[in-house]
Design goal:
alpha/beta; Ribosomal Protein S5, domain 2; Rossmann fold; Helicase, Ruva Protein, domain 3; five-stranded parallel sheet; four-stranded mixed sheet; 22 helices; 18 strands; 39% helix
């Protein structure tokens, strides 16, 4: 007999439907599996056979052939176990074929017949809904993940015998299993976000201003300064003033974490933008993604949020150079023999570094580094990477008077409201264009979205020659100026806006030329 069961495979963060075909016939007893299978998928044969035996399911010895279609796509992961087991049982006539017509199955089967969780459930359920499906059967541990998707009935799988009884009941009484209402995660403030408050940062007015500009336009920022000056806390506070994710953004981010097997990390922070702070010992694969079966890296896990690289000059150069293309394209492409995997990587990059090995340059009363040591330290960052930083801020050590000052300071809650207002201005401006923020304005749209007064154009042209700016630096200066103008509710970019943007653009040159 022949049977077919539907499932899906995750490719990048998208899903491709796979049909599990099973054929049982008389002949030499065997269990053959075909269809471009990875080792873990081939091992499903042994897991399924043991699960049948330990679940009390006795099958006559026959020739079993299982094919996973389409055969030209390499199948990876353990989520095929459950559909393979059900397809075989149906081919034996133990379950009616009609029970599987409207259900997508996924799950790993243990040797005792229990159904274990698997990664990538959310993209599978979303793909099923887009294809017109209405029901999925997933491991119980993945149920919360599946129920994020509105309009899908979710059948929780505990073990093989329970799944068999459940799908037969569903076939008889589908109305018993109601479709889910969708995302039910509460919008709540993170506990640690209360600690990341700008009111707790003393002094540093220029730094605070730069952080607000960066957050309002989602610009990349580099902080250069002495140890203990407040760089890390400023980065954390910047992440805390970013507006909550939209439903579309939250679902896309949840798909990335689902594929990584980390969905539980997003459950409590479903609407919050991620803040990723990887250690400087991270590898290229850890940052960009990769592995035998490619998985998203920190760049993708920080999608729509902040990627904070502390002690930037301590990262390996090849790791930092990996950032260059994704920062422009807002995505990472991993080319493998099995295909091209694309992961979103629309991050707001914040870097922090000391100006020299000891951290106190240019204060020669404290800095003991030679010019050669300072130059070698700063040259760990390439010019192309520095050009991708929209704002560079020199963070100076605080005088004691600022540290002990009791003067009232603006809270992050107040600043966040201002940032939200600026982002609403951008949303209205870019409606229907596909552009999300000022940092992503394409060059052909500069004239339309970034009109400048005559004095502003003249100033920018003057500094273009003086600073020997590249085309990339030129347009990034305009984008930052557009954000500054939005913060002042100005429709046109004025001379003062260009001047402030150039100040952020020139600080990296100042720090590097002091050697």
């Amino acid at each position: 007999m022949y049977s077919i069961v539907s499932t899906a495979i995750v490719f990048g963060i998208q899903s491709v439907f796979v049909q599990v075909e099973a054929d049982v016939c008389d002949g030499m007893p065997a269990f053959e599996m075909v269809g471009a299978l990875s080792p873990e998928v081939r091992e499903a044969r042994e897991r399924v056979k043991a699960a049948f035996r330990n679940s009390g399911i006795s099958l006559a010895p026959k020739k079993i052939t299982v094919n996973l279609y389409p055969a030209d796509i390499r199948k990876t992961g353990t989520g095929f176990d459950l559909p393979i087991a059900l397809a075989v049982l149906s081919a034996y006539g133990r379950i009616s074929k009609d029970c599987f017509k409207e259900i997508i199955f996924a799950g790993e089967v243990s040797l005792n017949g229990e159904i274990r969780p698997t990664a990538g459930i959310l993209p599978i359920v979303l793909a099923a809904r887009e294809a017109g499906g209405r029901t999925v059967c997933v491991p119980r541990e993945n149920v919360k993940e599946a129920r994020v998707v509105k309009g899908m009935a979710v059948l929780p799988a505990d073990n093989l015998n329970q799944v068999i009884a459940m799908v037969e009941e569903f076939h008889r009484m589908p109305e018993k299993y109601q479709a889910e209402s969708g995302i039910n995660a509460k919008r709540q403030v993170k506990e640690h976000a209360k600690e990341w408050d700008f009111a707790k940062i003393h002094g540093q007015k220029v730094l605070k201003r730069a952080c607000q500009v960066a957050a309002a336009g989602r610009h990349h920022m580099l902080m250069v300064g002495a140890p203990g000056a407040g760089k890390t806390m400023a980065a954390q506070a910047t992440a805390a003033i970013l507006p909550a994710l939209s439903e579309e953004e939250a679902l896309e981010l949840a798909k990335i974490y689902s594929v990584s097997g980390r969905f539980e990390q997003r459950e409590q922070e479903f609407w919050e933008r991620p803040f990723r702070n990887p250690h400087h010992t991270i590898t290229v694969a850890g940052l960009a993604g990769g592995g035998g079966t490619p998985k998203p890296g920190e760049l993708s896990l920080a999608h729509k949020g902040v990627l904070f690289l502390d002690e930037l000059t301590e990262f390996k150069r090849e790791v930092l150079e990996t950032l260059r293309q994704p920062l422009e394209e807002k995505a990472i492409r991993l080319v493998r023999s099995t295909g091209v995997y694309r992961y979103p990587a629309d991050v707001m990059l914040i870097g922090a570094m000391n100006p020299c090995g000891c951290g106190y340059y240019p204060d020669r009363n404290k800095c003991t580094c030679s010019p050669a040591v300072i130059s070698r330290h700063q040259n760990k960052l390439s010019k192309p990477l520095l050009e991708r930083m929209d704002l560079t801020v020199e963070v100076k050590r605080l005088p004691l008077a600022d540290m002990v000052s009791t003067e009232p300071k603006e809270t992050s809650e107040t600043i966040k409201k201002r940032v939200q207002e600026v982002q609403e201005i951008q949303k209205e401006r870019f409606k229907g264009s596909g552009i999300v923020s000022n940092s992503g304005i394409p060059v052909p749209y500069m004239e339309e979205f970034c009109p400048m007064e005559g004095e502003a154009k003249k100033l920018l042209q003057e500094y273009f020659e003086r600073l020997e700016m590249s085309a990339r630096g030129y347009y990034r200066t305009i984008r930052v100026a557009r954000t500054i103008a939005d913060m002042e509710h100005s429709s046109r970019i004025c001379r003062a806006h260009i001047m402030e943007s150039l100040m952020y653009r020139g600080m990296d040159r100042k720090a590097w030329e002091m050697v």
